[in-house]
Design brief:
The protein is mainly α. It has helices at residues 2-14, 20-54, 63-82, 87-105, 108-111, 114-140, 147-167, 174-201, 208-231. It contains nine helices and no strands.
Length: 233
């Protein structure tokens, strides 16, 4: 009962606008958790892009290999999201996920220029920082993004995935690809706000792997949509 009371007090603080002292207290409570999240996130992003730019794209020219890699990503996401796993094993699986993503991203070099890739990386950094700060501001002003908001985002993402699958058969319609890329940028930008809001609401600061995975997926999808948009510009 005492733990429940402490939890309710923390929730009550976040439900109203925070004063300066409460903001400092919140970030003191979260600083180690945030450090773990961003340390792991930076490591996984580096793994992905180092592999993407160092590996030979011939490795995924085979359709069977490509399909197996995609299936592997879905299996790893399922294991990380649904099953209770030891943190070290989660880290290993996450690194495997980042490695496979890097292998798949190696194809980007074939259909886009280095300038577009560089611009996209800078764009992702700018969007992430802006949305992260916006997510913090929502918490400071006592605005919580709960389960229903996350459900709406999920539905929008599912619609986007369906439209993206349809777009595979519409290669000649550049405007369709550009619109999907813009919608994707909006959705994953909002996801960064939502994920930040959720992280700062948590009373449990243990599962930094899952939190960094959320950010990782946001960043990878932002990059993919920025590259797609510029490639069809």
């Amino acid at each position: 009962m005492e733990n429940l009371s402490i939890y309710n007090k923390k929730k009550a603080k976040i439900n109203k606008k925070l004063n300066f002292k409460e903001i400092i207290s919140l970030f003191n409570d979260k600083k180690v958790f945030l450090l773990k999240i961003f340390s792991n996130l930076i490591f996984q992003i580096l793994v992905t892009f180092v592999i993407a730019f160092k590996i030979n794209t011939d490795i995924i020219d085979n359709n069977v290999t490509f399909i197996l890699l995609i299936l592997s990503l879905f299996i790893i996401i399922f294991l990380l999201s649904v099953i209770q796993i030891h943190p070290f094993l989660k880290f290993i699986l996450f690194t495997l996920f980042s490695t496979i993503t890097g292998i798949l991203f190696s194809k980007v070099k074939e259909y886009t220029s280095r300038d577009i890739i560089k611009t996209s990386l800078l764009g992702v950094l700018g969007i992430f920082v802006s949305m992260f700060l916006f997510g913090i501001l929502l918490i400071i002003f006592g605005i919580q993004l709960g389960y229903k908001f996350g459900l709406i985002l999920l539905y929008l993402l599912l619609i986007l995935i369906i439209c993206t699958i349809v777009s595979i058969f519409m290669n000649k319609f550049k405007i369709y690809h550009k619109i999907l890329a813009i919608v994707g940028l909006i959705i994953f930008s909002i996801y960064i706000i939502y994920d930040t809001n959720q992280i700062l609401q948590r009373t449990n600061n243990d599962d930094y792997i899952s939190a960094s995975l959320d950010y990782y997926l946001d960043i990878i999808n932002l990059f993919n949509n920025l590259v797609t948009y510029q490639s069809f510009f």
